[in-house]
Amino acid sequence: MANTPSDKPVFIFDTHGDWHATKIGNYLFSSRGEYIGFVEGEDVYKLDGEWLGRLSKDGRIVRKRTEKRRELHPNPPAKPARPEKLPARPPLPPMMAELTFSVVDVLDEDPDIFKRISDLRPDMD
Questions:
Q1: How many C-beta atoms surround the C-beta of residue 47 within 10 A?
Q2: Closest by alpha carbon to 61, among 124, 9, 113?
Q3: CB 40 within 8 A of CB 29
């Protein structure tokens, strides 16, 4: 069975070429196969619905430096099943273009961003 475009893995790198995630369909998985986020159009969200930035054509998550912080996504998708054939290793990263000063590589700025719960979430009483 051939991969459809939505099933084909897209590898998410930072500017230095470090692999952080794999996009399969509209879901993001860590290198260990854990569900860590989702993509809606070009917008990338953590699993709790916090907006991180936009997925660039070269596989980076970027945002404008002055961009306002968004509210949590109102309806984050349910946790998907772990993919059957998650790639064990990524291919070599693409040559990354320089970013202008107004654009930030989210994973370069904060490599552990997928490991934390959003501070926008209401506190438990």
A1: 18
A2: 113
A3: no
Tell me the domain boundaries of the chain: 10-112
Sheet holding 10-13, edge to edge: 10-13, 19-24, 27-29, 35-40, 43-46, 51-55, 61-64, 103-105
| Tokens 């936009």, residue located | 54
Report H helices in the chain.
Answer: 106-109
CA atoms within 13 A on the CB side of 97: 9
In whole angstroms, what is the distance from residue 78 CA to residue 94 CA?
A: 31
Question: Phi then psi for 118, rounded to 5 degrees?
Answer: -60, 140
pLDDT tens-digit map of 17-45: 999 999 999 999 998 899 999 999 999 99
Angle at 66 between CA 49 and CA 112, to 5 degrees: 45
Residue-wise pLDDT tens digits, 56-96: 999 999 999 999 888 889 999 999 998 888 888 888 888 88
